[in-house]
Write a structure and sequence with these properties.
Structural class: alpha+beta
CATH architecture of the largest domain: 3-Layer(aba) Sandwich
CATH class of the largest domain: Alpha Beta
CATH topology of the largest domain: Beta-lactamase
Number of helices: 22
Number of domains: 2
Strand content: 15-25%
Number of strands: 23
Shape: elongated
CATH superfamily of the largest domain: DD-peptidase/beta-lactamase superfamily
Largest sheet: 7 strands, mixed
Helix content: 25-40%
């Protein structure tokens, strides 16, 4: 190696400041025996600063861009995105508790709950484009079936934000929907409770039914949501807030696709209170079946039955005919059946027992007799000749007379016999007066009728009670413009339950109960107590007397004897073969239609110590003794054989 080369190399190395590996060795070529698979002996050239600089620059740029986006999202639009994130991922749904169970007086279940499922569409979780929504609706309709179409779901979606698609779904259908959540964003399943009424039509007017709240009902009402079910009639409506309980809340979390992820209980629902009713379910069912067989089976189109306990006003049975199956109004209503009921000209939803009024016919006569004895118009032994008619001179047309007729001549009758054989002539006389007897007059008739519960609401704990009506001269002057003058004939008609008299079957039953029990007019009550889940009493409905000692006990004893005579030797003698003693009164009310009359029959038993007062009403059913009496007799027979504990009473 010469000096020039040496000096040049030294200068070269001094300028570079470092050495490359291949500049150290004389030969950088591997030996022939060198193995490429071993790192020993290999020579690699290190990276320069350039790649590291570029890599660091890229990282810094990415972090800078990320910082800008984070600043924009969290600082500039943080509040907006926070709200949108909450709306998209969480929302509350109500949890409806089971309604309280209803029991009859013997613990038999009248209304219960069955676990079921409902499927809802939450509008805020559905895709925005119509095509995607229609696809979801189509998938959902195929799963549900039961005539639920995609078009119907879409139509409801237009109307409201949250749509109840279907109710009363089986567990299998609910599980299938849950399993396909990825295909059904915005679709959710909720456990619900469907109302069940095991006695259905026989007790539907007492229990009522339930239905979902409308959007109008939820508007501005705290605690109501579209998933709520409320009572629509009967006890369900009367005690809805107690039976319904309190709504709970659950938080639902969904993923970015709108599919269910998880839920969290925010507030547990409060189970509704149970209701114990005075109703005797078996008596109610027997009465309904007997009426259907004997009255309706004989051609009667409508009617009602009421049975009260005269000792405390408890309603043991009450129904209206025709009836309806209240199960069809449950969570999944049967719309076809509902339309049929609503279009029925007999108005099956009308509770004729408490909401319709009719002329009472001769069943008012025990009340007229009570007033006549109490006012001293007549005594129990005074007899009146019943020739089958009464002739009243017309004061406006001398020489002419108005004839008021009875059913048939009965001869001389006292008060007891007049009740037993329903003498119109006798009650014309004591009501309006005739010859030497100055009658009660309409003012006193109305006074005693009101005192015994006619023409006034009794306050039964069912919605829709009618007040009935007892007329007077002032009313006629104001309302009957073509004949405003109150005439003697109007008083005569009132005395036998005709003319303008209108009562409900419930009112007549309550009035006869006051006569049967010695003078106490009880407020009719269906509910006896509200119970908690352990059946402990939360609130009790105690017997409530509207009026006590309405008339003297001696007066009522005589009237009861007249009703008893009707069974032993009068129009109701067919009851004498029953295994329980009774006292009764029949009635036939003319209604202004040719060959059409209302039929009434009212009876209490046992005679010595009454436990039940039963009234049967048959609308346009003919004579009370012919149509209503056989129904009452069979109901009373069932009661005697299944409920009455015979002691020393003899027929």
């Amino acid at each position: 190696m010469n000096a020039n080369y040496t000096n040049g190399s030294a200068l070269y190395f001094m300028k570079k400041k470092y050495l490359d590996p291949d500049e150290i060795f004389a030969d950088a070529i591997n030996l022939p025996s060198f193995s490429e698979n071993t790192p020993e002996g290999r020579m690699e050239k290190p990276l320069t600063r350039g790649p590291f600089f570029l890599f660091a620059l890229g990282i810094a740029g990415g972090l800078a861009v990320l910082a800008v986006f984070l600043f924009r999202a969290q600082i500039l639009r943080g509040a907006e995105y926070r709200v949108r994130a909450d709306d998209n991922k969480f929302y509350e749904i109500p949890l409806r508790p089971p309604r309280g169970v209803m029991y009859d007086s013997r613990g038999v279940i009248l209304a219960s709950n069955e676990s079921t499922f409902g499927v809802y569409v939450e509008g805020g979780e559905l895709p925005e484009d119509a095509a995607s929504r229609e696809l979801i609706f189509s998938h959902l309709a195929k799963i549900i079936g039961n005539n639920v179409s995609a078009d119907v779901i879409a139509e409801e979606f237009v109307k409201t934000h949250t749509v109840l698609v279907a109710s009363d779904l089986s567990r299998e259908t609910a599980l299938e929907i849950l399993a396909r959540q990825d295909e059904l964003p915005g679709v959710f399943v909720q456990e619900e409770f469907s109302r069940r009424y095991p006695f259905s039509a026989s007790v539907s007017h007492v229990l009522g039914y339930v239905g979902r709240v409308t959007r109008e009902e939820t508007s501005g009402v705290r605690g109501f949501s579209l998933t709520d079910v409320v009572g629509r009639d009967g006890i369900e409506a009367q005690y809805d807030s107690d039976l319904r309980g309190g709504e709970g809340r659950k938080l639902i979390e969904v993923n970015a696709k709108g599919s269910f992820e998880r839920d969290r209980l925010l507030e547990p629902p409060r189970v509704g209170l149970n209701a114990e009713l005075a109703i005797d379910a078996e008596l109610q069912k027997a009465a309904f079946e007997i009426f259907s067989r004997l009255a309706a089976g004989g051609g009667a189109k409508a009617g009602a039955v009421v049975a009260l306990d005269p000792r405390d006003g408890a309603v043991r049975a009450l129904f209206s005919y025709p009836s309806f199956d209240n199960n069809m109004f449950t969570v999944a209503p049967d719309n076809a059946k509902i339309r049929s009921i609503l279009s029925d000209p007999r108005f099956p939803l009308l509770n004729r027992a408490i909401s319709s009024t009719y002329p009472s016919g001769s069943t008012i006569k025990p009340i007229i007799a009570t007033a006549a004895l109490e006012e001293g118009v007549i005594d129990e032994k005074r007899k009146i000749l019943d020739e089958g008619f009464i002739s009243i001179p017309d004061p406006y047309h001398p020489g002419q007379a108005t004839i008021f007729r009875g059913v048939r001549p009965l001869g001389w009758v006292d008060l007891r016999r007049a009740i037993a054989n329903s003498s119109n002539i006798y009650f014309y006389t004591v009501g309006g007066g005739y010859k030497d007897i100055v009658g009660l007059g309409v003012t006193r008739i109305k006074q005693y009728a009101n005192r015994l519960g006619l023409g006034t609401k009794l306050g039964i704990d069912l919605p829709g009670e009618a007040a009935g009506f007892m007329p007077d001269p002032e009313w006629k002057k104001e309302h009957v413009k073509n004949d405003p003058l109150w005439r003697l004939g109007d008083t005569y008609n009132t005395s036998i339950g005709q003319g303008y008299v209108n009562v409900t079957p419930l009112q007549l039953t309550a009035a006869i109960s006051a006569i049967a029990n010695g003078g106490t007019l009880w407020k009719p009550r269906v509910l006896t107590a509200l119970l908690d889940e352990r059946k402990d009493v939360v609130r009790e409905t105690a017997p409530e007397a509207i009026r006590s000692n309405v008339v003297s006990s001696e007066t009522l004893r005589i009237v009861r004897e007249g009703m008893r005579l009707s069974v032993t030797d009068g129009l109701a003698v067919s009851l004498s073969d029953l295994p329980v003693t009774s006292a009764a009164k029949s009635g036939t009310a003319e209604i202004g239609e040719k060959n059409k009359t209302h039929a009434w029959f009212t009876v209490f038993a046992p005679y010595e110590n009454p436990e039940i007062v039963l009234t049967v009403f048959v609308e346009k059913g003919g004579g009370g003794s012919v149509v209503a009496l056989p129904v009452a007799k069979e109901i009373l027979r069932w009661y005697a054989e299944n409920r009455y504990q015979k002691t020393s009473n003899t027929q």
